Structures are given as structure tokens and as C-alpha cells.
Amino acid sequence: MRLKTFRTPLAAAATLAAVLAGGPVFAQEEPAPITGDPVAEPGLELRGKLDGDRYDVWANVLGLTPHGAEETYTVYCIDIRTPLDTESPYEEGHWEESGVANLEAVRWVLFNGYPNVGAEDLIEDAGGEVNPDWTDEETVKVAYAGTQAAVWHFTDDWDLLEDNPVKGGNNGEDEAVLAVYEHLTEEPGRVPDPSEYIVDLEGEEDATYVDGRFGPYTVRSNAGPVALEADGGRLEKENGDIADSLDDGEQFWIALDDNSSEITVTGTAAYDLPVGRVFLATTEASLSGDAANRVISGESQKLILAQPREGEVPAEWRFALDAPTDRPSESGGAQLPKTGTSLTVAFAAGLALLIGGLTVTVFAKRRKAAAH
């Protein structure tokens, strides 16, 4: 039986546990939405087309300062037709209610645009040139404008002009902004949503006991390297080195502590991802709780957070293992008896959903080794 692990978000794990238990599925309680105040710094004026007509627009450098925080985060406009509401606070909302298209493409632009890629690096990676006379602030304006133009291309079907795309951009801004725009729009990839990230384990059905170790077990992760820890033993690579961090497809072996037959293995994959968090202008009364429902502040520009959110995908496996008692033979290490699969890790106690730690624990079936 193949071992399943925690899959983010919590609702996915709750679904799995409920299906196994035959009970209802309860949704995860969502944290309170973030609120904050928008800020805008002068940027570059871009020339483009919207619905087949000329449509020029300022790519001002936008930010959002969350209430109760000092740091200002970079955001982008995802609604080119309406102005920024600088008089109202903004509140985090859902992408669906924003009515904006192409979330996947926008995520990719944000992940590969400024500020997730430094301003100079972005321009140079796109094949553009950084004018040595530009200040750091001017370089940021160029990188931001190219990224904003790419965002508008996908959210509003707006196209940047190839000829003189920046008003007054005859100091290298024209070429650099266009290079960034084309770099981010020509072949957009796909950035997974955190709900698609997994940390998994394979190899339970084929693992054996050789020279004092159980294994191998294969780590599966699409969320990056997995940090591993063990309680009750140690995890080793094939050459005997400690396995404290493994990439997708790499393997580890279990060596139990003396007089121990159980081990708990935890794995954690950390990721940084701009998840497309949308912010909509609202009213002070709504934020104070006086309004029964949130009140949107008229026709106001929608914003999307560009900077990455840190997150983790945790997993936990608990093994109860019995090593064969006979000593290694001349032909090799002692093997588990061939009465079935060489080492089967199966569900015995079912799945325990640990709400506080956001993990799913799998209890391994303890298998007795028969004497030869």
C-alpha cells in the first residue's frame, strides 16, 4: 500500500481523513484578511493599445503598507481602466470576486518579474541594457514598468507599443521596458498554487533490511528540497552520510536506535510563492465591523501582491519496524522473510489529522520477522 502524506492546504488533508473515516468534510477556518493603505510613487508613462485603440497609461510604482506593519510591499495594478483609490483602505479579497482574468499567467509574471528578480538582473536577463547613468530608483522604475505592462497584457488585454513604448524614453528606457515586457509575455509558464504542493514518500513495498538498515525510501516533492528529521533513529544516504535534506527522487535508509523498534520521520519543504493575493478598496466602516457585509469603495483600482509569501509543506511518517533476528549470511545482509512484500508499510491505525501542526500522521503496520 502506498503511503500518503500531508497535502496542503489543510482542507485537502481534511477531505482525505473524512473519506477514510466516512465522516463529513469541514472547511479550514481562514485567517482574517490583511488590510492596508496604498501608496504610489511616480513611474513611467507607457504607450499601448486597448481594444484596438491607443491607450497610454502611467505605470506608477505602487505599494501597500499593511495596517500594524512598517514594511511596504510591492503591488501591481490589475485593473487598467480605473484609478487608484488613495483615500480608502484596501482589504485582501478573493481572485474570483475581483473579476480579473488569467491568474496563472499573472502569477508567472510576478514570480519572474520585479521585485522577485532584481531590477538590473531582470533587465539584463530579458536582453536589455541598464544605462550606467540611471540611478537605482530609475532602474527600478524601468523594471517595474516592464513587469506592470506584462501584467496588464494578461489582466486587461493591453499591448505595449513596440515603437517608442515609453513617453520620453529616449535614454534607454524604451528598449529596456520593451525587453522586459516581451520577456515576460512571450512564453509564460505556470507557477503552481500552494494547494498543489506535496511532500510524499515512496518505496515502502520494496524496502528491505540489509546491514542494519531499512530502505531505501524515496522522497517525492514538487515544492523543493525536503528537510528531514528523525526521532528514534537516524536517516542515512546510501553511502552512510546523514540524510538531513533531500531533493525529489533522492533516497534515504532508516537505522534504528539501539533497543528501538519505532521511528518518527518528519519532512518539511519550504517555498516562496507570489500567490496572487488580490486587494480591493473598501470603507473604514466596513473594516470596523459596523457593516454586515464588506462595502467596496466605488470604482477603484484592484491591486495584486507581487512579493513572495513564505510557506511550508510538512509531512510526518511513523514507522514500527522489527529487524530480523538472524545474523547476516555469507551471501549478503539479512532480509525480511519473503512471506509477502519485503517490507510493507500499511495503514494500521488510520490517519490522524493534527490540526495544530497541519500534518497528517501515518502509522506504519508493525511486521514481525519470522526465523528462518
TrEMBL record:
UniProt keywords, alphabetically: Cell wall, Membrane, Peptidoglycan-anchor, Secreted, Signal, Transmembrane, Transmembrane helix
Top-level division of the source organism's lineage: Bacteria
Pfam families xrefs: Gram_pos_anchor, TED
Chain ranges of the Gram-positive cocci surface proteins LPxTG domain: 336-372
Keyword flag Methyltransferase: no
Membrane-spanning residues: 343-364
Signal peptide: 1-27
InterPro entries in alphabetical order: LPXTG_anchor, Thioester_dom, TQXA_dom
Xref: PROSITE patterns: GRAM_POS_ANCHORING
Name of the protein in question: Cys-Gln thioester bond-forming surface protein
Taxonomic lineage of the native organism: Bacteria, Bacillati, Actinomycetota, Actinomycetes, Glycomycetales
